Known about the structure:
Elements: H1 4-14, E1 16-19, E2 22-25, H2 26-35, E3 39-44, E4 51-56, E5 62-65, H3 67-86
Antiparallel strand pairs: 1-2, 3-4, 4-5
Amino acid sequence: MKTIAEARIENHLNRKIRYEGEIMTNRDMVDRLLSEGFEGKMHNKVNGKTIMYAAVSKDGDLVELSKIQYDYMMQALLLAAYSQLISPQGQK
């Protein structure tokens, strides 16, 4: 059985949104950003108190994320890096 926090996270990731003219879930949006080479960044906004979570491309494009989207992105990036470390040489 899922905890309340786990259910809240799942509900947020499964919520439908509009991104670049398409309807998709928050999870699908983050997966698309990852496939396009975006990386997660945390920024302080101008007043220094508010934290902004964002996906940033190598070209400097910025997409603002929720905390849950950002955490999902960081987890996916860590799992990808970990799987590269433990995979035998020569296999992808």
